[in-house]
Amino acid sequence: MKAKTANEKIIFGLKVKQLRQQLGLSFAELSKATGMSLSYLNEIEKGKKFPKEDKVVNLAKALGTTVKDLTSDELGRNLAPVTQLLQSNFLNELPLELFGIELSKVAEIIAQAPMRVGAFISTLLELSRSYALREENFYFAALRSYLELNDNYFPELEAAVENFAHHHKLPSLRPLPPRMLAQLLEEEYGYDIVPHGLDDHPELAHLRSVYLPGKQQLLLNGALTPVQRSFQFGKELAFNYLKLKERANTSSLQRSRVFEEVLNHSKATYFSVALHIPRDPFVNALREFFGRPTWDANAFQAIMQRFNATPEMFYHRLTNVIPTFFGIKQLFFLRFLHERENDTFAIDKELHLQRRHHPHENGLFEHYCRRWISISLLRDLPEAQEEATLIDIQKSHYFDTEDEYLCLTLARTNYPSPNENVSVTLGLLLNEDVRREINWADDPSIPFREVNTTCERCPIEDCKVRAAEPVIVNRRNKYRDMKAALKKLESE
Questions:
Q1: Under 8 Å CB-to-CB from 272, ≥6 apart: which residues?
Q2: 78 plus 38 within the same structural domain
Q3: pTM, whole model, 2 decimals?
Q4: Do 359 and 462 share a structural domain?
């Protein structure tokens, strides 16, 4: 008999427990009827063991069923959601060990209250269908949780970057010339780099690169800037040096097959960012910047220019080092895309450390608050100017809460993507940690603004930049008035 998978063991164990309880048999009675020890039966029901064929026959006989029914992968109508979850790729692909969770523990929870867990799983699956969530939605959510669990800082990747640089005798000064990294890919890993490899494929114009593993070719978008090429080279070096086998062959993930692909893409990105922006000199530069008496947008941009980093690389590195080296743990990162043609805004990257902060993605097709600097700065970008960049700051107080954030935003044309702008925002919850580390945190020249999450949920009156009516607020108020009227009727 071939070895059983973890899911097969779990389903078999649940079926044994279900049948035993239906017959009112104790462990001792089932042990006597099958000749199996109490501890072995317990391991079976927890999904840790799958008995040999002769023992399966004994179990089926004692439980009043057939071997075929006992070993099938069906759990019955009441536990159908559990079967659906176990047979999906969701649990198979998520590396639960990253979160310190053993699959056997998940099985144990299911086994303890299968009906209730089944109902809960059914609810989750129904929600995912209602909002058209695919497996990759769960994968990206799990990745964000993993990054947040580790404060988005990974010593093992930092050490790998240092070892790589030392082994290849890379210069300590940055930026690294793109040609140097290209040469490593060609000589060390046998790459064939095609600088304008995507130019004849307009349908791939939004991609920065495509890797063809069969030919070991790296096809580049010819419109890339030198620093964008260098970043792509850094990611390819990471895939090879870290031996990350599961990977997407496009520069950005389109549709992810397995969680490991999403995780490896994140590791490669981290590696390339750390390679281009070395930790120690970057931390020193930030410490000097935070020590200034007032906010200075030019000084902020000068750090990015010193390391010749793209805005995404720069902000990625900020989220790596600020929590660990400055003790500022409560922060968020958002990246907005603005399609100029239809004037729509979408969040495509998001990170929250320590808690779920107010500015976050809303998948209900609502209009994000136009008071956010992330959006207002995008609107200020000149339409015709290529590679335009704006940097600004705002103190954002979230309506009807005590939360106030120091928001540092950079907006630029999303070169080389046509008709698209992008903004990246780092939000620091204004607390004693921020005020201790950042001298200019309370600089009176920093503009202050009351903000909310979406227009539909915002009760702020006389908002001159509102993009939609407060329909959610109005609906809530209508329900509140109805309750008050009913209460009044009951008291009369």
A1: 231, 232, 233, 234, 235, 237, 238, 313
A2: yes
A3: 0.81
A4: yes
